[in-house]
Write a structure and sequence with these properties.
The complex is a heterodimer of chains A (about 325) and B (about 300). Chain A has about 325 residues and is of the alpha/beta class. Chain A is about 55% helix and about 10% strand. Chain A has helices spanning about 1-5, 10-30, 30-35, 40-60, 70-80, 100-115, 130-145, 165-170, 215-225, 240-245, 260-275, 285-320, and strands at about 90-95, 120-125, 155-160, 205-210, 235, 255-260. In chain A, helix 9 links the parallel strand 4 and strand 5 (about 235). Chain A is elongated. With about 300 residues, chain B is mainly α. Chain B contains nine helices and five strands, in the order H-E-E-H-E-H-H-H-H-H-E-E-H-H. Chain B has helices at about 5-25, 55-60, 75-90, 100-130, 135-140, 155-165, 180-210, 225-240, 250-295, and strands at about 35-40, 45-50, 70, 215, 220. In chain B, helix 4 packs across helix 5 (about 135-140) and helix 8 (about 225-240) packs across helix 9. Chain B is extended and about 85 Å long. The chains are: A alpha/beta (about 325), B mainly alpha (about 300). At the A-B interface, helix 4, helix 6, helix 8, helix 9 and helix 11 of A face helix 4, helix 7 and helix 9 of B.
């Protein structure tokens, strides 16, 4: 850390200089009065440094923070790990670039895990930009690191379909009713791995990466609930959405990755199992993003404590006149 | 000139000088995008796939006259535009300003345009036009529409008529006509969702809440699992007691309701914590974009390493 600070002296200078007016205010007004009348933009600035500096540190040094997988991440990992080579897995990418920061690492890890297990991957999207997310993940993982996998035989992108939960309701019983071609315009009948596939009950596992509506809730309601013995679902969701999905665990949703923390835990499990001694840094995105999370969360905790102390102290002062 | 304006002018000038210096005076530079030319269909046309600066360096080292990997001006301009808009949106944290308003207006406009295009090509063309005029659609925009999918289905005239009725509200008279398809949409959606919520949430959650309070694992009492189930069941009952208004919240019911409030508060706190985590992740990826893709200050996945 010391070597980093010395080497990157210019960053330290920028951070310190940007905070000089705040220090001057505190020295002029005293700590209590300065904090009580603090402009919220100082908090924004401190938060900026709390996020930016760890990203820069991790980007320069390559260090990541240690991660211990939770039981839920382990359960998610075990669901895919339990599948046999050649089993079918449906990957629904229901998110867009606005959630890529949280869900991109999960998508990468899911696809890599499925590719390592030699599963047959069927990609679909209920969000319009989900198709681009599929293409990007396929390019990042399959095309670059698993060139032996053949499109149409080992993986296929069926693309985006509009209709939200109605799509799920239809493909649960008849996938060909809606999907006549894949995302490249090839007829479903000409795709070898679509042979004999009539509905998604034939999938061995459903994986949903969800940023909202339609997403995991709809997959639970319209796919898992009517066919609890035939359809098994695991999911990765944004932090905003994850708490709403906890009631479905474990009966309707045996595995759930919540936010970037869930992504980092799952990445750790996949990397430990398949990464070797020097894992490719592109599979450690979630772990890298936990650095700014740690510092930013500590900052928020400190700010909450300070704000409470200020609140109660102010009230006490007012009461005492 | 106001003091604040002067300070901001100086900061922006320094920022611009810093960017210019980094772009022109450093060995690596910054903010450039590269592409790899891939011949398609026996060289009849060329596809340009994204490439990295590292791949460019590698190709240059192997053959200085190569043109397979090359600088992409459109992508580079796009990168700078993305960086500008990121900073423009962030500028709102300081104060509302013209840069933010321009960025906001462009986001709204682009989103609206994008949804219109998606609505036409991904909804109307495959789901309606391809059913009513499969031959025309197959020969023009969906060559993969073959076999049994290529048959005409006149039942789809009904959604076509309903769609036209829905658009009737744009006309000066007869707006009431649009209420019929709207009623159909609301009725269908309400019915569909009511069943799903009853089945997937209401009934399933009752079943999920009926848990054994004493859990035995291989004949041995499992303290952890039993405690978890106990907290779950007590928590559900106490939260229900809080929302039970047929009795006054006094005595046992009042105590249970108070515990229910605490449980609800803890739940809201956990949700808030998750939300904070999500928002910081979004901030982090924009920072990563600025430091990595644009400024080339960091290179966590080694995209700019190459060329020996």
């Amino acid at each position: 850390m010391t070597a980093f600070l010395i080497g990157q002296w210019w960053l330290v200078m920028i951070v310190v200089i940007s905070l000089v007016p705040l220090f001057r205010k505190i020295s002029r007004e005293g700590l209590f009065d300065a904090l009580v009348s603090l402009d919220r933009r100082w908090i924004f600035l401190v938060m900026l440094w709390a996020v930016l500096v760890p990203i820069y540190y991790i980007g320069v040094t390559g260090d990541t923070f240690p991660e211990v997988p939770s039981a839920l991440a382990q359960a998610t990992f075990d669901e895919i790990e339990a599948l046999e080579p050649g089993d079918r897995i449906l990957l629904a990418f229901d998110y867009d670039p606005a959630s890529e920061g949280e869900l991109g690492p999960m998508a990468t890890a899911f696809v890599r895990h499925a590719a390592e297990k030699h599963l047959k991957m069927y990609f679909i999207a209920l969000w319009p930009v989900g198709l681009q997310m599929i293409d990007e993940t396929v390019s990042r993982v399959i095309e670059s690191d698993f060139p032996e996998l053949v499109y149409g035989e080992d993986y296929v992108s069926l693309g985006f379909k509009s209709g939200g939960e109605a799509v799920i309701k239809v493909i649960v019983t008849n996938i060909r009713e809606l999907y006549t071609t894949d995302s490249r315009g090839t007829s479903i009948g000409e795709i070898p791995m679509m042979e004999g596939i009539e509905n998604i009950q034939q999938m061995d596992l459903l994986v949903n990466i969800s940023a909202g509506y339609p997403g995991t809730k709809e997959w639970v309601q319209y796919a898992v609930t009517p066919y609890p013995d035939r359809i098994r679902l695991i999911a990765g969701a944004t932090g905003v959405q994850a708490p709403l999905l906890y009631p479905y665990i474990p009966n309707q949703l045996p595995g759930l990755l919540g936010a970037i923390k869930g992504a980092a835990e799952y990445e750790k499990l996949v990397t430990d199992a398949y990464g070797g001694e020097n894992p490719d840094p592109k599979y450690l995105e979630g772990l890298r993003r936990m650095g700014p999370q740690l510092v930013a969360h500590l900052l928020i905790i400190v700010l909450i404590l300070i704000a409470n102390v200020l609140f109660f102290t102010s009230r006490k002062r007012e009461a005492s006149g | 000139m106001k003091r604040e304006t002067t300070i901001w002018a100086v900061i922006m000038l320094l920022g611009l000088l810093g960017l210019a210096g980094r772009a022109m005076l450093t060995s690596t530079g910054m903010g450039r995008e590269y592409v790899r030319a891939v011949p398609v269909a026996d060289g009849q046309w060329t596809r340009y796939d994204p490439a990295t600066y590292g791949e460019f360096l590698g190709a240059e080292a192997a053959d200085p006259a190569q043109s397979d990997v090359q600088l992409s001006w459109p992508r580079s301009v796009g990168l700078w535009v993305a960086a500008f808009f990121t900073l423009a949106i962030f500028s709102f944290l300081y104060r509302d300003n013209p840069f933010y308003r321009v960025a906001e207006a462009i986001v709204v406009g682009v989103s609206a345009g994008y949804w219109m295009v998606v609505g036409f090509w991904d909804v109307l063309v495959p789901n309606l036009f391809a059913k009513l005029a499969p031959g025309t659609i197959q020969s023009s925009v969906m060559p993969g529409l073959t076999g049994s999918d290529a048959g005409r289905n006149l039942w789809y005239l009904i959604p076509l008529v309903l769609g036209i009725m829905l658009l009737w509200r744009l006309l000066p008279t007869g707006a009431w006509i649009s209420r019929w398809p709207l009623a159909f949409i609301i009725g269908t959606t309400a019915g569909l969702r009511m069943i799903a919520f009853l089945h997937g949430d209401f009934l399933a959650q009752i079943r999920n809440s009926i848990l054994p309070l004493a859990v035995f694992e291989a004949g041995v009492f499992d303290v952890g699992a039993s405690l978890t189930n106990l907290i779950m069941v007590v928590g559900v009952l106490c939260c229900l007691a809080y929302f039970f208004f047929s009795f006054e919240h006094q005595g046992v019911v009042g105590g249970a309701a108070k515990v229910g409030i605490w449980i609800l508060m803890i739940t809201f706190g956990a949700s808030f914590g998750y939300t904070v985590m999500g928002r910081i992740a979004l901030l982090a990826i924009r920072m990563e974009f600025l430091l990595d893709d644009w400024l080339w200050l960091i290179d966590p996945i080694g995209r700019r390493v190459g060329g020996g």
